[in-house]
Design brief:
The complex is a heterodimer of chains A (about 110) and B (about 110).
Chain A lengths: L2 E5 L2 E4 L5 E8 L5 E7 L5 E9 L2 E4 L6 E6 L2 E6 L8 E8 L6 E3 L3 E5 L1
Parallel strand pairs in A: 2-11
Antiparallel strand pairs in A: 1-3, 3-8, 4-5, 4-9, 5-6, 7-8, 9-10, 9-11
Chain B lengths: L2 E3 L4 E5 L4 E3 L2 E3 L5 E7 L5 E7 L5 E3 L5 E5 L4 E6 L8 E8 L6 E2 L3 E6 L1
Parallel strand pairs in B: 2-12
Antiparallel strand pairs in B: 1-4, 3-9, 5-6, 5-10, 7-8, 8-9, 10-11, 10-12
Classes of the chains: A mainly beta (about 110), B mainly beta (about 110).
Chain lengths: ~110, ~110
């Protein structure tokens, strides 16, 4: 069966520090991968998606970047965090069809 | 373009009462439609999905949803709510691309 792992679960980082969040998928190949950010009461904001290794599409200009170094690995990064980067980050994978999407358990990022 | 609206930010019901959460979408054809549930601090879990066929779909945890093309709606229902159903519920629509659009969510509060 397919599983998705996302870590860390919580993170407290000072302003200006770097960020690296990792997401890996098991049990499938060539998945579509997504990074979402969720702010309280504001639903899910799509940040990045990837349909293949090295292929990254950005939905929102921001202080973040994403990379897909391997087929089932998706990394969210920042060189210098801002206070506004605080939020709940969710990784998800899907095939783009009617099966829907599977989400990781999320990372609560607090920038102080 | 695709969009989805969840008009209710909060819904409060008593335990044992019936539930209906509203979802309206905009898309030129019949899209893929999904309902997800999110417990506090967790990722999203797929409850049910619709892409064709019978307009009444059954999901996990006793939930069902009905697709009504004439009303562009995909409302989620449950005949008897349990206290454990208290969570955030998201409707999502996916049209011709592999990028789903999520609603802003409806927070379900269950009173004993």
């Amino acid at each position: 069966s397919q599983t998705i792992h996302q870590w860390p679960a919580t993170l407290v980082q000072p302003v200006g520090s770097p960020l690296s969040l990792e997401c890996t998928v098991e049990g499938t190949s060539n998945p579509n991968l997504y990074w979402y950010r969720q702010a309280a009461g504001r639903g899910l904001q799509l940040l990045f998606y990837s349909v293949g290794i090295g292929q990254i599409s950005s939905e929102v200009p921001q202080n973040l970047s994403a990379s897909r170094p391997q087929d089932r690995q998706f990394i969210l990064s920042s060189k210098k965090l801002l206070l506004s980067d605080s939020g709940f980050y969710l990784c998800a994978w899907g095939t783009g069809g009617s099966e829907g999407y599977t989400f990781g358990s999320g990372t609560r990022l607090t920038v102080v | 373009a695709q969009s989805v609206t969840q008009p209710d930010i909060h819904i409060t019901v008593s335990e044992g009462a019936s539930l209906e959460l509203r979802c309206n979408y905009s898309y030129g054809a019949t899209p893929y439609l999904f309902w997800y549930v999110q417990s506090p601090g967790q990722g999203l879990q797929l409850l049910l999905k619709y892409f064709s066929g019978d307009t009444l779909v059954q999901g996990i945890k006793g939930f069902e949803a009905e697709f009504k093309r004439s009303q562009s709606s995909f409302n989620l229902r449950k005949p008897s709510v349990h206290w454990s159903d208290a969570a955030e519920y998201f409707c999502a629509v996916q049209g011709g691309s592999y990028i789903p659009t999520f609603g802003r969510g409806t927070s379900l509060i269950v009173h004993p």
